[in-house]
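Format is chain and fold; as here:
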Amino acid sequence: MARRLVNSVALVALVALCSMACSSAYTPRRSASLKILMENGQPMLLKNGHYHTLGLFGGGLVDAVADHPQALEYAEAFRDGTAWGFGTAIAGAVVAGLSPLALAVKTEGDAHGPSDQAVATTLGVAAAGLLAYCVGLAMVIEAQPRQFDAINRYNDAIEEGWLPPTATPTGGE
């Protein structure tokens, strides 16, 4: 009974710890440059006083740097690499995880057990799934630096005197 109570308390503590949201305490001053910060546990981008949600695959970054072509290329590389990598990793994990089930279902009523060919095929499919999972994770990891490349390139362009079209003064000649 005491062990069960300890396990319950540990589980509640773990859930409470995981549910705590991270947040930035400092909000940078308003500027045309792009800042990254945490708001309620989510990475956010701050530009000209407006927040852009980064999103699961970085769509907010694409929106935030859309007015600078080179930064946009980096942001799209981040978004695309993250999305494709995530999808590939999930598909690989599903294939690797479910392939042994196909073998179990096929041999359930068979008294002799699975054939050597069925076992080899199942292991091959599981290995291919594991390989796809690893490739997907590598794609996600490789895409992450592009997020910072996009932010840094955008901010460098502002320091170089390039102004986004929305920030240029309007007026007659």
Notes: Residues 22-162 form one domain. The longest helix spans residues 116-159. The longest strand covers residues 42-47.
